[in-house]
Structure formats: structure tokens, C-alpha cells
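Deliverable D5.2: sample structural annotation.
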Amino acid sequence: MFASTFIFRAGQYDEEFHRLDQQIAEAARSIPGYAGEETWENPGAGLIQNVYYWESEEALQQLISHPVHQEAKSKQARWLDGYRVIISKVIRQYGDGGVAQPHEIRPA
């Protein structure tokens, strides 16, 4: 499993940002190999973190190369006050069952 973590500081959003953000999420969920997602916020630092989980690096690459993702990436400076991306390989995950696994987390 792979995780792509997008950490950013929000700037000024507009209608185009929200449209592209929704389209990216829909594109990700439609890719075979998509395994789930989580979003975290650190209000003290002013950061938001979106984590997408993937069954393979190839699935992740499909989102990276998707035209809507490329469009949003080219315009990010209009909406964000900085960002960073972390691509990582998940070696293992475990818990007591009280917190859902990424594939069990589905957006409303």
C-alpha cells in the first residue's frame, strides 16, 4: 500500500478551487487501486493534510497524471499559502479495531 499526503496552508479559495478539488476527489475514487482517504487539520499550525491510500504505486501515478490534478497543480499558488507532498510506502497498519481502516472510510 502507498500513501500520498498533501499538506497545505489554505489561502483564499474560490469557486474554481472547490470545483477542481471535488473533481480530483472523484477522479481518485474512480481509479482502480484507490484504497481510501483521510483528512486532518492542525488549526494551531494552520495546516490541512489530505491522505490518499493506494494499493499500488501505479494507481497513485494515475491520479498524479490525471488532467484535473495537473490543472489544479498549475494553479495552486492562487489558493494555497504553501504546500508539501509526501509519497510513502505503508509497511504495516494495526490497531484495536476502534478506528476505521482507510478502505472503510468513505466520504459522505
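Annotation notes: Residues 2-48+57-90 form a domain with the Alpha-Beta Plaits fold (CATH 3.30.70.100). The beta strands are 2-10, 34-42, 47-54, 80-89.
The annotation will be released with the project's public dataset once the embargo ends.
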